[in-house]
Amino acid sequence: MAEPVVLLPGMMCDARLFAPQMADLSRERAVMVAPITQGERIEEIASGLLDVLPERFALAGLSMGGIVAMEVLRRAPGRVTRLALMDTNPLAETPQSAAQYEPLIIGAKAGRLDEMITQMIRPDFLAPGAGRAEVLALVRQMAADLGPEVFVRQVRALQRRRDNQAALRRCKVPALVLCGANDGLTPVKRHRFMAELIPQASLCILEGAGHLPTLEAPGEVCRALREWLVVADGAK
């Protein structure tokens, strides 16, 4: 049987972020969405996931999910059969950028979670078009369902995240680096940089999508993931 696929959602998102991809990929293989809601450090989140994930699996993460995916790869490279990084960032926060998260934590604790989410996922992070408002509404709903305690834990984890460049250079499995061309949060040039770091990486830039291409361009993401899942080990 084909290896299972593990999907890691972005910050304050759940399985709804990957609904189109789950429906498509689950026709032929086991697909699961693993939450990244436990722990105030990326290392802690990854360690908890490895306790419950299959022995070997294909791993795909979007945004914060991609950051966790890189940590999973660093900790257990022999368990990851292939890696997909979508609209994410391999770099650590600087002290200055980490400090900029503090008002978000204060706001969430004060009962203004929706306002904080609106600040973190701005409309200009997504591609323009009729579907943008619907995607943003879903993001706000997922965040409201997860709640402020999860928000605070995830912000703390992002503040403290490590640099993952070395882990990507050591990656020995087929990799997909995917980004929406209109991503206003993690730009295309960052993804070109990641693809250059990984020995067996292919780069996919999706026109008409921004930071959340799984919802903005679901069909294109499904096709890219299907191609990634059939790339033979050792292919460039």
UniProtKB/TrEMBL annotation:
Presence of the UniProt keyword Cell membrane in the record: no
Q: Which organism is it from?
A: Sediminimonas qiaohouensis
Supply the InterPro entries for this chain. Answer: AB_hydrolase, AB_hydrolase_1, AB_hydrolase_fold
Q: Where is the AB hydrolase-1 domain?
A: 5-223
State the protein's name.
Answer: Alpha/beta fold hydrolase
Q: What Gene3D superfamilies does this protein's entry cite?
A: alpha/beta hydrolase
What domain of life is recorded for the organism? Bacteria
Q: What keywords tag this UniProt record?
A: Hydrolase
Instruction: Tell me the GO molecular function terms.
Output: hydrolase activity
